[in-house]
Design brief:
The active site is at 42, 50, 77. The protein has helices at 23-26, 31-34, 42-57, 126-134, and strands spanning 10-16, 66-75, 86-97, 100-108, 113-125. The chain is an alpha+beta fold.
């Protein structure tokens, strides 16, 4: 990691919600999922906030060899967002403790605050991380 990786880094990231990010799209083969509301799914919201945090720190890592994996997230999902609305994430790196990174996160859809919370990531060497992860396949 570079010496520029310090608390105070902020990042804003936006995209327009499509039907592919709605609740029924989370598990399309599920009968229960198919009849649930067509709104931005919490699972995709989590991924969106994680991606915003990653984008915030890429310039401060030895990317792509060095990356950061999610280790903790605690967020609210306060309001429903239909497809077609743009959602914006605002993230801030608030603490760097060795390889552990802590972020404040929030998202809005232009009408409502839809999420807020905290997220943590751990900096890893991608090659070493994947080698350790692939060893799990030896147990199946």
């Amino acid at each position: 990691m570079k010496t520029s990786l310090k608390p105070g880094i902020k990042y804003e990231y936006s995209f327009t919600v499509t039907k592919n990010q709605t609740v029924p799209a989370m598990f399309p083969a599920s009968d229960e999922g198919a009849i649930r509301p067509e709104v931005f799914a919490t699972g995709f919201l989590v991924g969106f906030l994680e991606l915003a945090c990653v984008k915030a720190i890429i310039p401060h890592l030895d990317w792509p060899e060095e990356q950061a994996v999610g280790t903790y997230i605690s967020i609210t999902h306060l309001a429903a967002t239909p497809p077609g609305l743009e959602v914006t994430a605002n993230v801030e790196l608030v603490d760097v403790d060795g390889r552990k990174l802590k972020f404040k996160v929030q998202a809005h859809d232009g009408i409502d605050l839809i999420s807020r919370g905290e997220h943590e990531r751990m900096i890893v060497d991608k090659e070493q991380f994947m080698a350790r992860t692939k060893k799990k396949l030896e147990y199946i």
